[in-house]
Amino acid sequence: MLSLLKADLFRIFRGKLARIGLIISVVLPVVIVLIYYAADASLASITDGEDVTFGLFSASSLIKTSFSVSDNMGLVIIIFSVIFVSLDIVNGTLRNKVIAGHSRTSIYCSHLLSSIIYNLVMIIIYTSITTLLTLLLFKRNNPFSADEIRGLVYSIVLGLVTYVFIATVTTFLALILGSIAPSIILTVAYTMVIAFVTMIFFLIFQWGAIEDAERFEPLKYILYFIPLFANGSTLTVAEVNNTVFIEGMVSYLLFGGLNVFLGLLAFNRKDLK
Amino acid sequence: MEEKKYVLETYALTKKYKEKLAVDCVNMHIEYGDIYGFVGENGAGKTTIIRLITGLANPTSGRYALFGINSADKRIGDARKYMSGIVEAVSVNRSMNALDNLKLQCLINDIKKTDEELIELIHRVGLDYQEIAKKKAGDFSLGMRQRLGIAIAMISNPKFIVLDEPMNGLDPQGFIDVRETIVKLNKEGVTFLVSSHILAELDKVCNKIGVISHGRLLDEITIEDLHAKSRKRIEVASEDLEGLKEYLVSNLNLGEVEIANDHLLIFDNIDINEVLKALVNGNKQVKDISLKEDTIEDYYINLVVGGKHA
Predict the structure, then answer these.
(1) What average pLDDT does range A142-149 have in this prediction?
(2) Minimal CA separation from B83 to chain A, in Å
(3) What does each C-alpha distance from B130 to B100, B123, B161 come to in angstroms?
(4) How far is the C-alpha of B36 from the C-alpha of B296, rounded, in Å?
């Protein structure tokens, strides 16, 4: 199993694609933070320093949203993660592992672990650069309040676990479908649907887009158990409480575990290409 | 590992895809030291059997034993560590160069090899390392990839190598290189299962063949037995085969003579020199005369195409 993990990491980080991903994870946060900074500076000059963006152009918001899976680096990580797993099948190198005597379970777990490692390395690089730059540039919103710091910690922990969960989705789809394009389409569509649901939720409950929003209140508890939803909320909702955090973690544990269980079950029965 | 007679034995191995029976109750036997040629038409079930024994596909029913270890046994993974192979297409990482591909396989097999040892292996399969050092495997020709695939298969010093259509995409020199590599490794104790539809190539390397058609193993025979069984014959090509037949039958008192494929075939146990002498004496014009015996191709044609299994 350890030898397989070493082989998968070698395969991932030796390739050109990993280098491209690394460049994106360094360049993208610089570009995004600078765009936000320029927009914030322009707005500040018009509004005389008053924040009219509901905290959207703040260090705290930018750090939190850097964990989003449905845009920017999140999408890059998802796509690359799917490609790395799929290429093992497409190139046929997965066959070499089976013929060499490795069990299907070891092969699956090695792919899962290498995807988790890749996802975390990429998101940590991306978020670290975002954090450094925002703390340097967005002085107006610093220092953070105690509530903001707590929310930020929740978001960071939930954000990192999100990318562990995403690895369970990408590994499952890539190994079961066995080809790059459908796996990418399904994973991206999945995160996009959740992002859309989160946005609707945000409009209803936070901005009061509709009257009698209270009658949708019970829906909240169901939605929080949809993986990625809790994370989406922590990124968009200013006040993150323990309930959101715990429900999010339970959801990841439950559905992540289910993905791995079903994935192993299907992969062990599947005839490989 | 227990010492057994067979490297691979299958017992009523069967694979069904929905309604299609791809492999039907196959019992095959590969002994230690064999170069076992697997012969069959496209879609006969050769690759499916190879996929089953390499663990890429699961049998619908039946089982197999690899180095004496049953396929249902948990130790089957340990048995596979002594085998390697190329199944369907060569499995190489196209974005890596040859050396990195071999390093990757070392990690998969959990073995340590120096760069020098790996470069030596690259040369052994007929690739020029200096020429390909900076080339990605994706930029290799099919033949070069095939050679790299063989190097990957050889990296763990396996005792049993499965090669599915190893001659595909190779030029004539490639054929010779692969054939020589197989024979050389076999002399070092490696057992081979080689599937191919280039029957002439199998004839040159195999000591045993298995003929498969429509998912069923029709026969297993050693080349020695095949030659012992085969009918030696004199083949004569001429413009006037009927006239020639009449002349030779009456002059040499022949009994077993027939015309097939634009040739006169003489099955009588007669010296070719006597036939030549008779032809000269009778001033008969012939285009060609040769002594022939059955090849794998003849055997295959008799069994599959000429037999009731076609």
Answers:
(1) 67
(2) 7
(3) 14, 10, 28
(4) 12
B100 touches chain A (CB under 8 A): yes
Nearest to A99 by CA among B308, B105, B297: B105
* Mutation site for A-interface testing, chosen from B107, B111, B113 by largest number of A Cβ within 10 Å: B107
Residue with tokens 């953070």: A144
Chain A CB within 8 Å of residue B105 CB: yes
Among A3, A92, A269, select the one facing B91 at the smallest CB separation: A92
> pLDDT tens across B148-181, in order?
888 898 888 899 999 988 777 777 777 787 788 8
Is residue B306 exposed (0-12), middle (13-18) or buried (19+ Cβ within 10 Å)?
exposed
Q: Which of A7, A95, A269 sits opposite B104 (nearest CB)?
A: A7
Between CA A60 and CA A141 the distance in angstroms is 8
Query: Looking at the domain B6-226, which fold is it?
Result: Rossmann fold (3.40.50)
- Nearest-by-Cβ selection for A272 from B56, B80, B156: B56
Question: Which ranges in chain B are annotated with CATH 3.30.70?
Answer: 231-293
Residues carrying CATH 3.40.50.300, chain B: 6-226
Confidence tier at B71 by pLDDT (50, 70, 90)? confident
pLDDT attached to residue A107: 94
Return the residue of B nearest to A102 by Cα. B77
pTM, two decimals, is 0.80
Question: Could you tell me which CATH number the domain at B231-293 has?
Answer: 3.30.70
ipTM: 0.79
Tens digit of pLDDT for each residue in A114-128?
999 999 999 999 989
